[in-house]
Amino acid sequence: MKCLVIGGGAREHVIASVLLGDPEVESVVVAPGNAGIASLVHCVPIDVTDAQAIGELATELDVDLVVVGPEVPLMAGAADALIARGIPCFGPTREAALIEGSKAFCKEMMAEAGIPTAMALVCVNTSEAEIALGAFGAPYVVKDDGLAAGKGVVVTSDRSEALEHAQSCFAAGGTVVIEEFLDGPEVSLFGISDGTTVIPLQPAQDFKRVGEGDEGPNTGGMGAYSPLPWLEESVVGEVTERVLQPMLDALKRRGTPFVGVLYAGLAMTRRGIRVIEFNARFGDPETQVVLSRLATPLGGLLLAAATGQLESFAQLRWVPGFAVNVVIAAQGYPANPLLGSAISGCENVELEPNTSVFHGGTARVDGELVTSGGRVLSVTAHAPTLSQARERAYAGVVQIEIDGSHFRPDIAQKACATDS
Ligand code: AMP
Ligand code: GLY
User: Fold this and answer.
1) Ligand 2 pocket: which residues have CB below 6 Å?
2) Whose CA is nearest to atom 5 of ligand 2?
3) Against a cut of 0.85, is the pTM above it?
4) Which of 182, 205, 243, 279 has the greatest count of CB atoms below 10 A from its CB?
């Protein structure tokens, strides 16, 4: 099987390397990729917002499967362009990807499907926002309706900060969703879907805030671990039944079946499971800790999803133990990441047992590895226990040097107390 992966972050680095481990996969090309991915497979430059160019590349390479990593090409219609050419695509059409592309649409679909989520109001101007903030009270949750790379959400107890965020979205011509605050630990669960059937992967936890102790602004994710020793096993089945399958059924009824990763971001509140958001793709950095533990060959799974054959797919197998991923972010991330800073020490970390360095935002300039994005590297380690995996990941992180870079020192820390 020949595969093309679209994207250029650490998630695509993982997807490419796990696909290469599938004996049925004879080649993987990534477009556009990055410096780390280029040391693994052939990379081709591409504008990921150009769906036709993605279709043309897939035809030219004569691939059997395209895996679309990020949300941007999905919202640009990459899957639609591939389907029109008869090329199997793992990733939803533009219409189905709207569950991520529009928070207001996602809320509507959840209401229709009876999926438990935070109460919310869609607001188009300041007076509506003021009413909504008053209705839900503090802490305030204000979300930009459109795609914002995980950075469009403000959660704050400061009413004026909440209102300012809403006003900056209105000023940019957008709408906002203001909603009830959900308390409790977060869980990310990915469902592999062929439009009708969904197969859940193992759950992960992501750390969204930039700073230690969940301080500071939201990011795309600063680290993750999987599986979750504190989560009851029955939760995956419950989420599949009450969240993933109803959303899949609702999208199918609407005439826009969802093929790809149905990603449920959940809060485990005292009143039960609530959906914080849906995404239409693998999460980053959760993918680093989930797919790297998948023992079932990935190419076969994703092709079965892309061609509507999941119903008869065998039960997934997993590598035992735990994985922890720590993101090293560029100076200034998330507001203004500094690009072009020199990176050193990666090679040594890659030599460590059960440790991988997945590249998120790296490039080669005159042969030197430099930062080219906010989340530069994802150091991922595996071990029989969560504490050991965590120690290994940080032992790798501290060997890497990038001027002014930062990472969270507390990824998976609390969960280690419940490690089995
Ligand atoms: P989203 O882009 O909707 O996933 O939001 C990003 C992050 O903001 C989530 O992972 C949560 O940490 C936080 N968040 C979003 N909605 C809520 C909510 N209703 N209550 C509490 N935290 C939230
Ligand atoms: N890690 C969160 C996301 O991928 O949206």
Assistant:
1) 150, 206, 220-221, 279, 283-284, 286
2) 283
3) yes
4) 243
